[in-house]
Amino acid sequence: MVRIKRLRYTPEPLRAEDALRDPYRIKVLRKVIDGCAFRVYGHWVKKGEGQNRAALFENTPRCEVYNLYINSLNR
Description:
By secondary structure, this protein is mainly alpha-helical. It has helices at 2-6, 16-21, 27-41, 53-56, 63-74.
C-alpha cells in the first residue's frame, strides 16, 4: 500500500543517452543547468529594466533588448 501511495512521487528512470542527446527536453535537468548557469553568469545580468534573468537564457535577442542596445550606441 505504501508503494502505491508513493508511486506518483517517484521519478521516472532517466537514461543517460537521452540526457546526453537533449538535456533541455528533460525539465529537471533544464532547471539544474539554468540554475548553475545563473550562478556563474548572474553578475552579468543587470537588475534594471533593460535586462533580466530571461535574457541570459535566450538563444536570440528579443527585439526590445536589441533596440535598446542600438539606441544606446547611437547616443
